[in-house]
Amino acid sequence: MLPDAPKLMKRARRAARSVTNGPQIMRRLEEPDARALLVEGAEEGIPSVSKVAPILLSEFNTTEIKLAPVKTLIGLCVRAILAEEGYERIERGVRTDADDELFSTGSVYAKADVDDAEPEADGTDDLIELLASVSEKLLTTAGRRRLTARLELMD
User: Fold this and answer.
1) Quick check: is 66 in a domain?
2) What DSSP letter does each residue of 66-126 carry, written as one string?
3) Do 132 and 84 have their domain in common?
4) Residue 31 region by backbone torsions, left for phi larger than 0, else alpha for psi between -120 and 50, else beta
5) In this predicted structure, what is the pLDDT of residue 117?
6) What is the DSSP letter of 46?
7) Spatial CA neighbour of 2 closest among 85, 78, 74, 75
8) Facing residues of 63 across strands?
9) What is the DSSP letter of 20?
10) Range of the domain at 132
11) Are residues 106 and 134 in the same domain?
């Protein structure tokens, strides 16, 4: 499970409450057969929504399931479920097969390289992550190099 999986799942559950048949769609996507199809899509390097589209089209009202808010919810649910399975989104907006009646594009997922090592108890890893994120947004290349050099001196 990815560290942000609970947050993504909470977001998907909240979104499901605001969409017609949202909770039922989410429950259906969480079932073992649908989960297996989502993982299969991720392993094949294709948008996972394509794998579950036939299930959704056969079990829910076609007119409702094709609405943009419902398709957005499906994408949120897929992302949350795959995060629980240890997959992260690597690309979005990828074209699906021409025979997909529900989605024209979707996200592609890959197994995440999650470091199982215990983080340092003093929070140094968190601080370094924060500094790295901020430096990517605010510093020039030279500034990032100086920051990196100073962080390496801390070790």
Assistant:
1) yes
2) TSHHHHHHHHHHHHHHHHHTTEEEEEEEEE--TT-SS-SEEEEEEE-----SPPPTTSHHH
3) no
4) beta
5) 45
6) S
7) 85
8) none
9) T
10) 124-154
11) no
* Contact criterion met (CB below 8 Å) for 107 and 89: yes
Q: What is the mean pLDDT of residues 110-128?
A: 65
Q: What is the pLDDT of residue 122?
A: 57
Give a yes or no: residue 26 inside a domain: yes
Determine the Cα–Cα distance for residues 81 and 87; give it in Å rounded to an integer. 9
Rounded-to-integer distance, Cα 79 and Cα 125, Å: 26
Judge if 48 and 76 occupy the same domain. Answer: yes
User: Under a CB-based contact definition with an 8 Å cutoff, are residues 60 and 91 in contact?
Assistant: no
pTM here is 0.69
Sign of torsion, CA 104 43 84 137?
Answer: negative
According to DSSP, the residues that pair with 88 across neighbouring strands are 110
Q: Collapse the DSSP code of 48 into the 3-class scheme (helix H, G, I; strand E, B; otherwise coil) and give the result.
A: coil
Position 119 in a domain? no
Find the helix packing angle between 5-17 and 22-30, rounded to 10°: 140
- Mean pLDDT across 133-142: 77
Separate counts of helices (H) and strands (E) for the chain: 8, 2
